[in-house]
Design goal:
Largest sheet: 8 strands, parallel, barrel
CATH topology: TIM Barrel
Helix content: 40-55%
Shape: globular
Number of helices: 11
Low-confidence stretches: none
CATH architecture: Alpha-Beta Barrel
Distance between the termini: 23 Å
Strand content: 15-25%
Number of domains: 1
Order of helices and strands: HEHEEEHEHEHEHEHEHHHEH
């Protein structure tokens, strides 16, 4: 079932989760161990992130450096298929521009279609570690809106080989990312909304926001989207705060602001056990307020750890 169909049929706010593929060499059992307790809450769908290649440099005997491409977290498509088979729940693989040309993208979409996966989260993706700015592959897409156009084309039976006859149509439901505090590359929020609207016009069906810790940011984001005739469902994404180190990491990595009240509470804590409880309490309050606001779904970023999310979810059985 499509994400939008889940949202349309629900009478109450839904809860969904995003998980990371395990590090290369780990068993998929680690995924099952995380998901088993979460399945008690009947998630309508589960997102699985995609991690593109990174480059490492090995020093050779002659002193020169050899560049090697590695993927530390492979397996997105296989994990999606395994989750669907084990739990009979819909999955949403992330599909990105980075690292793919259009032919490779089309082939990946065909594989997903054959597996019965009909939901995607379509993203541009971040620059790799050796890049200052995102660089598209030769023959690839530079923007998420271009990738959405390609998926939308397949949904209409339009393939790269225009000589195909009687080509079958795919039936993908597409989500895209939204940034309540604007994408870090955008000059301002209005500009960011302008390009978000282009993604919706290109065929995207719903929006999932970047994590935030101040619900007012989400409320304002929904308001400005509606004022700009962006009328698709907007799913808020949140994450329970858990360590003191995240005071620096989260704003730096995800380009978000932390509310002064949350920072003050974290700084009062003597250890990460206390901070973890502060984060759980904060996420419970966020979730309750989002439900009261009428959010169609609350999406939890687990980041490979579900204990905190389980503590939050226990309050909404």
């Amino acid at each position: 079932m499509k994400v939008t169909e889940h949202l349309e049929k629900a009478n109450d706010t839904l809860f969904s989760y995003e998980i990371l593929p395990p590090l290369k060499g780990a068993s998929i059992q680690s995924i099952y161990e995380n998901l088993d307790p979460l399945m008690e809450f009947n998630p309508p769908f589960i997102d699985v992130t995609y991690h593109r290649e990174e480059y490492i440099y090995n020093k050779k005997e002659n002193g020169l450096l050899e560049r090697k491409s590695v993927r530390k977290r492979p397996g997105t498509v296989g994990i999606c298929a395994a989750i669907m088979n084990k739990y009979t729940v819909d999955t949403v693989p992330h599909i990105i521009c980075g690292g793919f040309n259009q032919e490779e993208t089309e082939n990946a979409l065909i594989d997903l279609d054959f597996l019965g996966i009909d939901n995607l989260l379509v993203l541009r993706g971040d620059p790799i570690n050796s890049e200052t700015y995102f660089t598209a592959e030769d023959g690839g897409h530079k923007y998420a809106s271009e990738l959405i156009h390609q998926v939308d084309g397949l949904n209409k039976g339009i393939y790269l080989d225009d000589g195909l006859t009687n080509s079958s149509k795919t039936n993908f439901c597409m989500g895209v990312a939204g940034y309540p505090e604007k994408h870090f590359e955008a000059p301002n929020l209005n500009s960011d909304i302008h390009f978000l609207k282009k993604k919706i016009e290109a065929g995207a069906d719903y929006i999932v926001t970047q994590m935030f810790f101040d619900n007012e940011k989400y409320y304002d984001f929904v308001k400005i989207c509606r004022a700009n005739n962006i009328n698709v469902p907007i799913i808020p994404g949140i994450k329970p705060f858990s360590t003191k180190r995240q005071l620096n990491i989260l704003p730096q990595r995800f380009h978000l602001n932390l509310p002064p009240e949350l920072v003050e509470e974290v700084l009062k804590c003597k250890n990460n056990i206390d901070i973890r409880q502060v984060g759980i309490d904060w996420a419970i309050k966020q979730t309750q307020e989002l439900i009261e606001f009428g959010a169609p779904c609350v999406h939890f970023y687990t980041m490979g750890k579900v204990d905190n999310v389980l503590k939050v979810m226990a309050n909404f059985k």
